[in-house]
Amino acid sequence: MAGHRTEAHPHGADRLCDAGDRVYSRAVRRGRVSRKDAETVPCLVELALLHPDPDDMGWLVPTSPQEVMTRLLREMHEHVVATQSRMGKAVSAFEWYAALGGNARSPAEGAAIRVLDGLPRIRAAMDEATEACTSEVLAVQPGGIRREDELSEGLHRALALRRRGVRMRDLYTHVARHGQGLLNYMELMEEAAEARTLDEVTERLIVFDRTVAFIPASPDRTVALELRHPALVGYLVTVFERLWRLAIPLTAPLPDTGIDGITHRERSIAALLAEGHQDAVVAERLGISVRTCRAHIARLSETLGAASRTQLGVRIAQAGLDDPPRFPELQPLTAPDRPESPTGR
């Protein structure tokens, strides 16, 4: 019987089967569900999404969505940490074996992956890539309003690139629009730089001439990876271009949501809440503080007339706010022209 259950429901709590989704949703809405109704979805009990009602063993009560999300996020975090550790060890081993064979290559010769441990080494590698860059820089800058020290740290590289006629394109979250430092920076860069914004972006990414890319390898960004493998860099460039096509120019206003009293940011928050994310996760993805996020949620609840978080979820669905806003009229019909590579290919 146990084997049959596993085969019939080969999934985890992060992606329920259709039957499990219906029963669990009903249990959350009503507060409990009968054992008979849950017999066809043993996965819910196996995954601890339903458990016996201590007051009436003929019924099952749901684990709260917030508790389920916390559990999933904890598992994901542990998996990411373990993966980063294994990746760092594998790269270090690769470099060690390559050195034994006398085939270790210098950065200029294009090692496929280098682990840059510590801010001084990261900055030195970025300076080298800046000096070698001749045509284009693509950058994704997550988080909210850019601090002055963050903008100043890379200003010397940006100015050097501008003097050489290098084209720079930057992606930020919409929140970054409210920082005067970014506006001053873009004015200083003049025609050399262009910026666009999205509700949320990927982790930090910088690509020089579509040949070398830098991504963080630790949560505090004190370890980074320098990537020169053509397939890896090409994949990251594709991700950037698709995000760029969906983004809104910094010089253009954010479009109206079309719903009275609901701002663009509140609609983005509503969509993430509808996916089941907790306040801290929503805040991190949109580049705002948890306090600001909760203030928007309170305003959203007031506008939609919701007296509780559960009711807010219902109101969000009724208002059609459970999907991210899409504005196809802002998307160009073709992707931006790709500049010629330094090698002419």
UniProtKB/TrEMBL annotation:
Annotated ranges, domain HTH luxR-type: 255-320
Highest taxon of the lineage: Bacteria
Gene Ontology MF terms: DNA binding
Region (Disordered): 320-345
GO terms, biological process: regulation of DNA-templated transcription
InterPro entries cross-referenced by the UniProt entry: Sig_transdc_resp-reg_C-effctor, TrmB-like, Tscrpt_reg_LuxR_C, WH-like_DNA-bd_sf
Protein name in UniProt: Helix-turn-helix transcriptional regulator
Species assigned in the record: Streptomyces aurantiacus
Taxonomic classification: Bacteria, Bacillati, Actinomycetota, Actinomycetes, Kitasatosporales
